[in-house]
Amino acid sequence: VTATISYRLSGEAPFPAAIQDCKAAVRFLRANAREFGIKADKIGAIGLSAGGHLTALLATSHGVKELEGKGGNQKVSSRIQSAVPMGAQTDFLSERTREVSKERLIWKQFMSGSQQERPKAYRLASPIEHLDKDDPPCLFLTGETDDESTRATKFRKRMSDLGISSGIEVIEGAPHGFLAKQVWFDQMIEAADNHFKKTLRGAQ
Fold this sequence. Notes:
The protein has helices at residues 17-31, 33-36, 50-60, 65-68, 95-103, 105-111, 119-125, 127-130, 153-162, 182-201; strands at residues 44-48, 82-86, 138-143, 166-171. Helix 5 packs across helix 6. 45% of the residues lie in helices and 11% in strands. It has ten helices and four strands, in the order H-H-E-H-H-E-H-H-H-H-E-H-E-H. The chain is α/β, with parallel strands linked by helices. The mean pLDDT is 96.
């Protein structure tokens, strides 16, 4: 079963609205699992760019009260069991993010300011800051010409230290927005499908 969810963009509501919407969607799907034919204990997430960041944050921030929101089904868990973050930023406290957040309006709009202005908010939004041993396996996908930060090297190292499975697939010749070309899209589908089969279907 695949569900395409919507979340509020930065022009409508700043962080943490987007992740709260993602968590509300997971709770809704889990609460209605029987109706939709969903295995409630085997839910995965995938997203690209901003969606990649939210996928990584969804994977790591289970139970963080400020991020859960009040989107319904409050007694249902928002935990996911597998994730494929694509073109994702995983360290919002990095030097790169500090510089980019000063320069780009989209970051200031999403986070209600720069990293320097709102360090606590950036820490809360940073997937790596929430990572612990109970988090699910992740497969990172990124374009070869995308920024090095999307390879989540520090994040994957910490996952390995915690004993959590992780992987990365770099799509040859692809930019940040690699879903625009069919050959790259096909590679993404195959990699994601293999990851979800291994992590969600393996222990039925």
